[in-house]
Write a structure and sequence with these properties.
Structural class: mainly alpha
Order of helices and strands: HH
Shape: elongated
Strand content: under 5%
Helix content: 55-70%
Oligomer: single chain
Length: 61
């Protein structure tokens, strides 16, 4: 009875991760139905929070 050794698969997981990451980045960066992309919405929220924090810190004691 012969046993056959198959070569281990290498590199396929990295390709799958890269494809999944590419799809995720496209979903995050693309706008749907005329709305702003998710990245822009997040950056606007960070900008607003920073401006409010800065205004609060500049108030006199």
């Amino acid at each position: 009875m012969k046993t056959f050794r198959t070569r281990p698969l290498r590199g396929q997981a990295m390709t799958e991760y890269l494809v999944a990451l590419l799809v995720l980045m496209m979903l995050v960066g693309v706008s749907f139905a005329g709305e702003a992309p998710i990245v822009d919405t997040f950056l606007n929220a960070v900008r607003t929070a920073f401006n409010r924090h800065s205004a609060f810190m500049s108030l006199p004691l």
